[in-house]
Structure formats: structure tokens, C-alpha cells
Amino acid sequence: MSWAFLRDLLSGVNKYSTGIGRIWVAVVFMFRLLVYVAAAENIWKHEHDEFECNIKQPGCENVCFDHFFPVSHIRLWALQLIMVSTPSLLVVFHVAYRENREKHHNMKLYRNPGKIDGGLLCTYLISLILKTGLEIVFLVLFYKLYNGFKIPRLVKCDIKPCPNTVDCYISKPTEKMIFLYFLVATSCLCIVLNLSELSYLIFKYSIKCYLKRDMKKQQ
């Protein structure tokens, strides 16, 4: 899978972000995207082939694997990366709309099309709320699908066509669990960064509006 589009998207968003937003971009790019491409993808690459049960009943291993891993960790991680980065497109599109509007009217309508104010501020806040919500949704999804954030060495399966309860073994469980904890930690860090940026922007522009209103009263 090519991640060039996601990389370009994050680079574009970085130009219009606050300081906290740039830290978020760095965390997503360095600690999530690069770790996924460089290491995590290879760990889960042959997870189905390396899943073994102590019985040779046809179809038993496939059914048990599908039961314990309804969605691959790594594919769900990839989907999470894509989904939490997508709301940033709203900001890029809004800036592109401003720039296109200036070209259409052939005049300067904004001091800086990429400055976070007015309508762009609302768009930016919406993107932060969406990113935070999606991070939380995926964390809950991970927890519900796999009954927690642990990967056991041994699972017991009694689903048909298995004739009885069989023992199934997961390959490299410790290594997978370390990366799963890393995924959860970076996701929580991104939630904290998004909430911090959201609070910062709301506080900053609340103060700005208050000062403007105070100046009008004095005039």
C-alpha cells in the first residue's frame, strides 16, 4: 500500500496548523505512520499462516482464527491512520477555497488565506473534534473486538467444524502486544494533543472577542 497521499496530506496540513497541531502531525508521521510501514506491518504479515491449532480438522483453524481475529490488528490500525488524518482535508479544502475565491475576484480578500480565523477557525475546530472522536471510536473498537488490549499466547476454540475444544497458538504474542500498546499510547497522545489544541484555540479567540468587545464599549 502506498502512503504517499497521506504523507502529502500531513505535509499540507502542517502549513496551516498551530504549534500544537504541528506536534500532532509529527507524532502521526514519525511515531505512527513510519512505525507502521517500517516494522508493524511485517509483524502481522503472516499472522494467519502462523496461527496453529493442535488438530488437523479441515476448516477448524480458519474458523477459530476468524473468531478471535475478526479484523486484523494491522488493517484496523491502517484504517485508523487514514480516518483520523482525513478530517484535516477539511482545512486544506477551505484554504484552497479561499485562494480560489481570491483568484476569481482578482483581488485580495484575506490577509492570509491560511490564517486560522473566521470560517476557517470553525472548519479547524470541526476537524479537531472529528479527529478526537475517531481516535476514541477506534480505541473502543480495538477493545471490544479483542476483549482488551492483550494478545494471549494460547486460545481455546470449540467452534464447529472443530470436533472438540482445541488449543490454538498465536505467533509472536509478546512482540505483537508491545506494538499494540504502542498503538494505544500514541493514539491517547494524539487525543491529548487534539483536546489541548481545541482548548487553546477556543481560549485564544474567546479572549480576542472579549478584548474587541471591550474596546468597542470604551469607544
Automatic annotation (TrEMBL):
Residues 42-75 form the Connexin N-terminal domain. InterPro entries: Connexin (IPR000500), Connexin_CCC (IPR019570), Connexin_CS (IPR017990), Connexin_N (IPR013092), Connexin_N_sf (IPR038359). This is Gap junction protein. One of its GO terms (biological process) is cell-cell signaling. It holds the Pfam family Connexin. Belongs to the connexin family. GO terms for molecular function: gap junction channel activity. It is found in: Cell junction, Gap junction; Cell membrane. It is a multi-pass membrane protein. PROSITE patterns: CONNEXINS_2. It comes from the Eukaryota. Residues 134-201 form the Connexin cysteine-rich domain. Its main location: other. One gap junction consists of a cluster of closely packed pairs of transmembrane channels, the connexons, through which materials of low MW diffuse from one cell to a neighboring cell. GO terms for cellular component: connexin complex. Keywords: Cell junction, Cell membrane, Gap junction, Membrane, Transmembrane, Transmembrane helix. A connexon is composed of a hexamer of connexins. The chain crosses the membrane at residues 21-39, 77-97, 118-143, 178-203.
